[in-house]
Amino acid sequence: MIFSKLFNSKAQWQHKNSNIRIAAIKDELQLSNSQDVQVLKRLASEDENDLVRRSALIKLNDFSVWLKAFEQEKNSSVKNFAYDNLINILASDSSDVYSKENKLSYIEQHITTSMAEKVLEKANCSTIIIALIDKINKPQTWPSLFVKKTDLTVQQYILSQTSDINTLEKLLKKADGDAVKSLIKEKLAIIALEKEKPVKLLKDTQMVLSKLLALKEQNDYELVLEKRTLLNDEWNWLVQDFACLSQSDKEQALIKYSTINEQLDKAFAHIKEQFEQAQIVRKLDEQKEQTIKEFREKLSTYNQLIANAVFENQEIDEIALKNELDEILVEIEHSALNNKEKSNFTEQFSKQLQKLEQIPEIAESVTKATHLISKISQQLPPETMEQFTERSAYFNEWQKQWRAVEAVISGVIPQSIADAKAQIDNQWREALAPLQKEQKQLFNQAQKKVAELKRLISTGKYNASFGVFKRLKKIFEQLSNHHQHRLQRDYDQLNEKLTELSDWEHYIATPRKQQLLEEVQKLAAQPLDNPNEQANQVKQYRKIWNSLGHADEDVDQAFNDSFNDALEKAFAPCRLWYAEQEKTREQHLVIRNQLVEQAKSLGNEYKHDNMAVKHVEVSLNKLLLAWKDAGDVDRTIYQKLNKQFIDAIKPVKTYIFDYHQDNAQLKDKLIEQVKAQHNNEDIYDAVNQVKVLQSKWKSIGYAGAKLENKLWNEFRKANDVIFAQRDEEKSKHQSDIDARVEKVSAVITAYEQRIQTTTTKTELQMLGNTLNELRDQQLQKKPVLKQIMVKIEAQQKLLDDKIKALNANLEKQSWLDTFAILEKLSSGNLSIEQLENVEEFIALPHVKQKRLIDALTKENGGDRLVKTIELEVMAGVESPASDQATRMQVQVELMQEKMTSGQSVDLNKAFVDWIAVAHIGEDDQAYLARIKPIFIK
């Protein structure tokens, strides 16, 4: 065996049989034994059987061993086996064979691209996948990897490495999951922003430059300085992104910025000096404020020193303090303060000097203040209106005493006493406030009663006056002395007046009651037809009776009894009517109960049947209307039924209300969306967007009576802003159009003049070419203006008509020249050989010259008369009567020829044939005269 030199005794792994060696590898050799490990490594690298070597490799399952087998093995099957296992180890999520750190290190330093691609196909660990992607570095494979590797981390990494818009759009189509789609959309948005960044940066830069330049129009230098600082800061912030601009744009922006700043410096040079002067004045004002602050602090200090001397018996050097105060007075006099301020501080510091001389008196007043605090503390604030008058007067007197003491103290008072005084004030004011308010209300009531009494007395309503006076008297007795004093005069006058009226009451009431009793007795004997009127009349009589007061004592009780009996008889018919009304109310009750049930039914239906809101709303309105018209029922029962009805329709109302609210919210959002379009720079796009929003508005339901009109008005106003902007843009655009129309119209007018004055065809054709170029230019400009195109077409038609007229004249002249030549030939004044020297021949076009010479020299033969008649037939010209028979024959022949050949009439060819018949002589002059009108009209 191959290992005989190493071992003295043979083991199973040394057996000749490869299967036994494989079994030994599996069962005998242990990885825990270092010698066994060495044996396995040797078997893996040196055994003659590839299956044994594979088994050893599997047993070892060590990355370095697999790697060695892959790199050094010559046997292709073992090499491939090791290669596959290396790929599996690297792709595996497990770290049992090879740690993740080692895998990453191997991928980074040693793995080949082809092996990395194999591992990548099987790998699931996001860290390994990302390392492999970096190693392979083939961006063209990323879209397929993005689909295969659905791990979010991997997909995020691929996205982070991708900046191509087309690739990202492909990935967006292939992405699965909202999170990844959101990432792709965000990246696309960022790329779009980056793409738009130079444009936006240039726009922002131009905006800053414009704002800087606009500062030249400002007059407030301080505002200019503030805005310029802000704009310069904004400019410096923008400059940080200038790297994305082209060199020319960057240089141009910097030059503009420098130029504008120079202009600003020059423009505000004279104002700058004024501003600096103002700054100096402001600084002086600040110093002045500081001086005032210092004087006030010194006042407080001296005040405290004096207070300490008074309350804590601290010794003070009065002479030194006086000297200091004298010095301060001198400082005040020489300070920058105005006269009023100097006078104020001089007065206050002078008072401090006085306090130094009055310290004993101040101390005595402080003692009095302490006694006053103690005294008021023993008195409770009023709690009832009965206590109010006495205790409020006591508190007012105490306040008066305190003010006298406080005048002597001159502001020097211990904080504890000041706090106690403030606490007492708050306590008493809180207690007095509601009572004072009540007193004020009572006083107001009393004033109203006084006014009412005066009115009643002046109008002769004396009986009512007694009741009002009783209430006034009750209120008057509850008023404080102060308020009673204010009303005392009016109260005494009214009391005296009513005492006098009381004596007249019996005298007036007795005959009036007698008369009213007779009227009631008459009503009882002859009731009114209408029970309601009867009842109202009874009530009115009772009211009048009660207002009459007392009659004479001997007849008053008899009057009252008789009146009550008569009033009861008068009311008897009403009771029967009310009984009938009760039956009607019972019928109404049935109807209302039914309506309550219908309301409950509606409340259940809209929930379970998914009724349309409109139908629910209509049904509810019908119920509410029916409830309103259902008639009267007993008040107590009505209140109960009304509550049931309201409770039944409440959820329906809530349902409709919520529907209206939802619609209102939707419409409110539409309003905001319309307002957002106010800032749309493309006004026509904004109009289109608004029209879409208008369609959406129509699709949204009713928003309720309170909000619908309000929302609609807001929506319409927001729309009006857009359309106003559109109209403004149109107006501006129309101005540009008008300018363009005016400019082009001037050009067209020039063309028209040239067309009218030009007489040669060549020049007209050149004008036509220029006009076509102008038309093409206008067609390329947007919008294409109809008024311009109409004018161009009109000039084109004018040009065409001019060319046609010119062609017609040339054609006519050509025929005139031709017939002039033929007439000269027929008269013998001209021969064919002399044609080239004839003016008329030279004027003919070259083609016609050649055609005429060919026709004159051919002499095809034939009958000149027949050819003349043929021309007359073709042109529809009458022939002489003597030639009618020949004409008939010619017509038949021409018709047969046309039917046979299918060719149309050709006058020019027939004319050439006419010339070519024979040499033109004097006999042909008559025929020339006949055919000349055919060609010259």
Tell me about this structure.
The protein has about 950 residues and is mainly alpha-helical. The protein is built from 36 helices and no strands. It has helices spanning about 20-25, 35-45, 50-60, 65-70, 75-90, 100-110, 115-120, 125-135, 140-150, 150-160, 165-175, 180-215, 220-240, 245-265, 270-310, 320-335, 340-355, 360-375, 385-410, 415-460, 460-480, 480-525, 530-545, 555-610, 615-630, 635-675, 685-700, 705-755, 760-780, 785-825, 840-845, 845-860, 865-875, 885-900, 905-915, 925-935. Helix 12 packs parallel to helix 14 and helix 23 (about 530-545) crosses helix 24 (about 555-610). The longest helix has about 55 residues, at about 555-610. The termini are far apart.
Task: Compile the SSE list and pairings.
Layout: H1 18-27, H2 34-46, H3 50-60, H4 63-72, H5 76-91, H6 100-109, H7 113-122, H8 126-136, H9 142-148, H10 152-161, H11 165-174, H12 178-214, H13 221-239, H14 247-267, H15 269-311, H16 318-334, H17 339-357, H18 359-377, H19 385-409, H20 415-458, H21 462-478, H22 481-525, H23 531-547, H24 553-608, H25 613-628, H26 635-676, H27 683-699, H28 705-757, H29 761-780, H30 786-827, H31 839-843, H32 846-858, H33 864-875, H34 884-901, H35 907-915, H36 925-935
Helix pairs in contact: 1-3, 2-3, 3-5, 4-5, 5-7, 6-8, 7-8, 8-10, 10-12, 11-12, 12-13, 12-14, 15-17, 15-18, 16-17, 18-19, 18-20, 19-20, 20-21, 20-22, 21-22, 22-23, 22-24, 23-24, 24-25, 24-26, 25-26, 26-27, 26-28, 27-28, 28-30, 29-30, 30-36, 33-34, 33-35, 33-36
Report mean pLDDT, rounded to a whole number.
76
The main pleated sheet reads as: none
User: Which regions have little confidence, pLDDT < 50, spanning 5+ residues?
Assistant: 1-9
Number of helices: 36
User: How much helix is in the residues?
Assistant: over 70%
* Separation of the first and last Cα atoms: 132 Å
Assembly of the depicted chains: single chain
Which structural class do the helices and strands define? Answer: mainly alpha
Silhouette: extended
The proportion of strand residues reads: under 5%
Q: Mind telling me the C-alpha Rg?
A: 61 Å
Number of strands: 0
